[in-house]
Amino acid sequence: MSKQDASVKTTFNLLNVKLRMPEAKEASQDDYVGLITQLASRRIRATVTQNIGVIMKRCIIERIGDNIMLYGIITRYTPLTSGKLLNLEEPDQSEEDQEGLPINRVPNPKDVAFFFSPSNHRLAISKRGGPLSIKQAHDYFVKAFKQILKTGQLVDVDIEQDGDTFREILDAPRIKRVRIEVSYTNNDMSKENAADLDQKMKSGNVGRFVIEAISDGATEGLDVAKIPFLQGAFELAQSNGKVSATVIDAKSPTKRGRTVETEEHPREESVVSEKPGDVVRDMYAKLKNLFPRG
């Protein structure tokens, strides 16, 4: 087998997991490790849609120098609910009770690989096979964390979004409306306006901030660049929130414009490993390069 044949490409979307500790203490690597590993050790599961449940099957800790990388499997399945079952052999007959079904057994399991870097609190969800969207993964972790948080702990989970979508909004000839929702960061913002807004949120004990700006009807629309706090909110939202905007541009079907939802355009990254055994370390290096706080 050639070296090229043995290579492995991992394509993934990202979640930003932000753990808040009691008394405003900054969460450590060990705090994040404990948060994630409990999901596997306690078999925490959650239903994310009517037909999709998720559980963490496995979580492995690997040390890379002074840092830690977690990786493992989350599994999508079809929840079984109480009620009636249709007899496919005699569908016109009365439905039957779910008697004799195995306890704690569910159909259609599909595994999804994940990688988590505690040093910069980014969680990568593999797109291989596509059994679980990043939105479904997001909803699982939000619901699962709520089941294990200790007294005084809070956690936010945000989808990392594609920067091109934000630029598409800002470059539109006319922005009629923007609604921006952001949460605090873990002190990893380098842009001045974003860092300033983040600090103001923390000093005022604001966990989540929502702002809506509507054009006054002028032909030009909103000019985000001239409004520092609005620009800061945009910068924060790519990793720590989301934006909904109504813009008028060449893609607009009518003069009323079109709506752009940044959360519908998740950030996608990939890494190529020379062999399967290198995937975890290559993912660690990739996440560290993308988010150099850690």
Explain what this protein looks like in three dimensions.
With 294 residues, the chain is of the alpha+beta class. It folds into 2 domains: 3-80 and 109-160 and 267-290, no CATH class; 163-264, no CATH class. It has helices at 3-6, 29-41, 134-146, 163-170, 192-203, 228-240, 279-290, and strands at 8-20, 45-49, 52-64, 67-77, 84-85, 96-97, 110-117, 122-126, 154-159, 174-183, 208-214, 241-248, 258-261, 268-273. Helix 5 (192-203) crosses helix 6. The model has no long low-confidence stretch (mean pLDDT 87).
Characteristics:
globular, alpha+beta, 294 residues, eight-stranded antiparallel sheet, four-stranded antiparallel sheet, 2 domains
Integer count of domains: 2
Q: What structural class should be given to the helix and strand makeup?
A: alpha+beta
Give the N-to-C terminal Cα separation: 36 Å
Major sheet summary line: 8 strands, antiparallel
Order of helices and strands: HEHEEEEEEEHEHEHEHEEEH
State the low-pLDDT regions, or none.
Answer: none
Shape: globular
Radius of gyration: 22 Å
Task: State the total count of DSSP E strands.
Answer: 14
Strand content: 25-35%
Share of residues in helices: 25-40%
Number of helices: 7
What is the average per-residue confidence, as pLDDT, rounded to a whole number? Answer: 87
